[in-house]
Write a structure and sequence with these properties.
The chain has 2 domains: 260 residues, Rossmann fold, CATH 3.40.50; 94 residues, ANL, C-terminal domain (GMP Synthetase, Chain A, domain 3, 2-Layer Sandwich). The chain has 13 helices and 21 strands. The protein has a 9-stranded mixed sheet with strand order 4-3-5-6-7-8-9-14-13. Strands 10-11-12-15 form a 4-stranded antiparallel sheet. It binds 5'-O-[hydroxy(phenylacetyl)phosphoryl]adenosine. 5'-O-[hydroxy(phenylacetyl)phosphoryl]adenosine binds next to helix 6, strand 7, strand 8 and strand 12.
């Protein structure tokens, strides 16, 4: 059952008419209710009545994470506090978190979007859904929770942590669906196998993995070890949480964006020019329906490309490609742009190398160094040192070939890189600290 099939399959003309109507009402609201937006719009001389077509979006100012920080904590909210029924906060890598707010209607919209997300993966009433995303200020746990309830399926609100206990619940409660970060899925596979659980014997059928970058190779690994279909789900707290984009089962080639609620653009992160469909750039999102915390042209910093061609599943919603990284956490190593996911792709193509790695960036004198710490299989590790050296050199060569950057590879024992029960910390950039 697809919940809101009407909005998922609208002909483009009708969808755009709806988007324009919603955009006009949004701009009207933020101009009158949020001093920050009024100031920004006045600065560029745009009034709400100037928004006559979707193309006029380009005249509106961007909003950045820095703007949210500058208005900390509640300066960007568009309704009085007594209309706000929920606060969450984004994880925030530096300093204070960014609070985000929901009215009751926002929670209804979010639940509906999450029900649509789950339905895109074939989830229905009668399914049992194991939610191992963290519950709390993070939007993952509660976002999924309300979506499952809206759909009428059964929730197991496990949250993060207690991995061995989670394995027991997967065995005993028989969930058919699992939701967690891709790195935690691999950790569950590892612990489950250690405890003798045969995932093929569980009832798990489909998983919703997101909240951090991952690759096709990791997808294949999760699918084969957990014996399920692994779908990529995208979202960010500032925009709503999970429930912004989801792959459908028919075509795991891009994530459908819920365009009836979020208006996408792809821009060049340097020139800020809008890019045509198919070009890779930074995703910018405008929330069309949110009441408490609306955003105009929010720069997500997530790098992807957009495709408006129809999907075999029948949805007319545009698709974004699996995220390629972020325009702000992109590492620049001696002048070369490096996305951690590119290094991961190289590592995962090498037999004997585990999908657990960490990148350590340092500066020696004026030179950046990038060390790739990666776990290898037990069997390799018990080999003689010579064999390990040859393997390390091989990886160094392949990374050099692929990325044109020289790195130092350090092979470490299985399980020596700290596991995370939420998002994996892939990059340690020591250049910023000292
Ligand atoms: O991670 C919301 C979420 C929860 C999404 C559960 C999916 C599942 P934040 O903590 O605000 O919100 O982090 C948002 O995480 O801007 C991306 O850089 C990254 N991210 C989210 N989903 C994906 C994905 C949640 N599927 C930030 N692939 C975003 C790659 C992702 N990166």
């Amino acid at each position: 059952m697809i919940h809101d099939i009407y909005h998922e399959t609208l002909p483009r003309g009708e969808l755009e008419a709806l988007q324009l109507k919603r955009l006009q009402s949004l701009v009207e609201r933020v101009y009158h209710l949020v001093p920050f937006y009024r100031r920004r719009m006045d600065e560029v001389g745009v009034k709400p009545e100037h928004i006559q077509t979707l193309g006029d979006l380009e005249h509106l100012p961007f909003t950045t994470k820095q703007d949210l920080r500058d208005n900390y904590p509640f300066g960007m909210f568009a309704v009085p506090m007594d209309h706000i029924v929920r606060l969450h906060a984004s994880s925030g890598t530096t300093g204070k978190p960014t609070p985000v707010a929901y009215t009751q209607r926002d929670l209804d919209t979010w639940s509906e979007l999450m029900a649509r997300t789950l339905a895109a993966g074939g989830v229905h009433r009668g399914d049992i859904v194991h939610i191992a995303y963290g519950y709390g200020l993070f939007t993952g746990g509660l976002g999924f929770h309300y979506g499952v309830e809206r759909l009428g399926a059964t929730v197991i609100p496990v949250s993060g942590g207690q991995t061995r206990r989670q394995i027991m619940l997967i065995k005993d409660f028989g969930p058919t669906v699992i939701c967690c970060t891709p790195s935690f899925a691999l950790y569950l596979a590892e612990v489950g196998e250690e405890l003798g659980l045969k995932f093929a014997d569980t009832r798990l059928r489909v998983g919703f993995f997101g909240a951090e970058p991952w690759t096709e190779t990791i997808r294949q690994e999760i699918e084969s070890r957990l014996h399920l279909e692994a779908l990529d789900i995208y979202g960010l707290s500032e925009v709503i949480g999970p429930g912004v984009g989801i792959e459908c089962l028919e075509m795991k080639h891009g994530l459908h964006l819920f365009e009836d609620h979020f208006l996408p653009e792809i821009i060049d992160p340097v020139s800020l020019e809008k890019l045509p469909p198919g070009d890779t750039g930074e995703l910018v999102l405008t929330t069309l329906t949110k009441e408490a915390f609306p955003l105009l042209r929010y720069r997500t910093r997530d790098v992807t490309a957009i495709d408006y061609t129809p999907c075999r599943c029948g949805r007319t919603l545009a698709r974004i490609q699996r995220l390629k990284g972020r325009s702000d956490d992109m590492l620049i190593i001696r002048g070369v742009n490096v996305f951690p996911s590119q290094i991961e792709a190289v590592l995962l193509d090498i037999p004997g190398v585990a999908p657990h790695y960490q990148l350590i960036v340092e500066r020696e004198g004026h030179l950046d160094t990038l060390e790739v710490m990666v776990e290898v299989d037990e069997s390799l590790f018990s080999d003689e040192v010579k064999g390990l050296q040859i393997l390390a050199q091989k990886i160094e060569r392949q990374i050099k070939d692929f990325l044109t950057v020289s790195v130092k590879v350090r092979l470490v024992e299985p399980r020596s890189i700290p596991r995370s029960e939420g998002k994996a910390q892939r990059v340690i950039d020591k250049r910023k600290i000292g």
